[in-house]
Amino acid sequence: MSRELLIAEIDKLYEIHELSLEAESNVERFLDLLDIGEIRAAERDHTSPTGWRVNEWVKKGILLAFRIGKLVKVEDACSSQFFDKHTFPIKDISAENQIRVVPGGTAIRRGAYLSPGVVIMPPSYVNVGAYVGEGTMLDSHTLVGSCAQIGRKAHISAGTQIGGVLEPVGAMPIIIEDEVMVGGNCGIYEGTIVKRRAVIGAGCVITGSTPVYDLVRETVHRKEKGKPLMIPEGAVVVPGSRTLAGDFAAKNKLSVYTPVIVKYRDEKTDAATVLEQAIR
Q1: How far apart are the first and last CA of the chain?
Q2: What is the pLDDT of residues 122-145, one digit of tens each?
Q3: Domain boundary assignment for the chain
Q4: Rounded to an integer, what distance in angstroms lies between the CA atom of residue 3 and that of residue 11?
Q5: How far apart are CA 97 and CA 19, in angstroms?
Q6: Of 130, 127, 123, 169, nearest to 150 (Cα)?
Q7: Pseudo-torsion of CA 202, 205, 208, 212, nearest 10°?
Q8: Which residue in 13, 30, 54, 105 has a CA-CA distance of 20 to 30 Å to 264?
Q9: Of 97, 93, 94, which Cα lies nearest the Cα of 107?
């Protein structure tokens, strides 16, 4: 079945309440293509202001797979008992995939794609629809949520959550572009796009509704109508705060958290964020 026919079939099935065995067969083919990275929840689009395009039909296919899924016992190498939809077993990975998954509680769901050279430290979880580019490191206690897109040679540090955006189907997923460094204990949510070579400092929490104050360019980056929050290319973001307006806030010296861009990437930043190739 061609890509065009598969798109038409997924769109048609998405509107049908009662699904047939033939529908399940088409969804299985869809999941196989998602699993090997042939199709993605979002793709680069140089005609778009964001540089990306959401593939709504891919999200519809994932939701269809949940609808047709039956609860079954999931076998685990550690002999624990798990129960999940039969359409989303643990992803089958072999040494030929050239992905380094260190033992210790990591799970990768079917329908997630990991490129050769990816390194995953335990315990971590990669959900359906996620895409992780070549040479990227996912450190311990990281979550890569549904449909999140992570580029090449990125580093997602320990304790970080890259949120999932499965619904609504037209919503932009979280996108982390090539060579981005995300520090420990960060959270990136609500369709935020982190552009190439940006650095997100440890402890930053960035959501689609978070204003990001740019000290270098003296501007504020916000989510706008039809356009998600975008962290500029090469930006170095750290946790900060801003004073709240009003007499009560002034009297009580109140402020709220906000991310702040303090500089843009330079040689000194590169030296501080370089990844040790020996561990790969």
Answers
A1: 38
A2: 999 999 999 999 999 999 999 999
A3: 3-275
A4: 12
A5: 33
A6: 130
A7: -70
A8: 54
A9: 93
Six-digit token pair at 153?
A: 């040679």
What gap in Å lies between CA 205 and CA 163, rounded to an integer?
11
Q: Angle at Cα 79 formed by Cα 74 and Cα 82, nearest 5°?
A: 30
Burial zone of 42 (CB within 10 Å; 0-12 exposed, 13-18 middle, 19+ buried): buried
Q: What is the dihedral of CA 28, 29, 30, 36, to 10 degrees?
A: 110
Cβ–Cβ contacts within 10 Å for residue 55, how many? Answer: 18
Pick the CATH number of 3-275 from 2.160.10.10, 2.30.42.10, 3.40.50.10470, 2.60.120.10: 2.160.10.10
The per-residue pLDDT for range 180-233, each reduced to its tens digit, is 999 999 999 999 999 999 999 999 999 988 899 999 999 999 999 889 999 999
Phi and psi at 87, nearest 5°, equal -75, -15
Q: What is the pTM of this model?
A: 0.91
Between the CA of residue 241 and those of 232, 256, 261, 263, what are the distances in Å? 20, 5, 12, 16
How many residues are given for the chain?
280
How far is residue 115's CA from residue 195's CA, in Å, rounded to a whole number?
20
C-alpha closest to that of 166 among 69, 58, 68 = 58
Token pair 């540089």: residue = 51
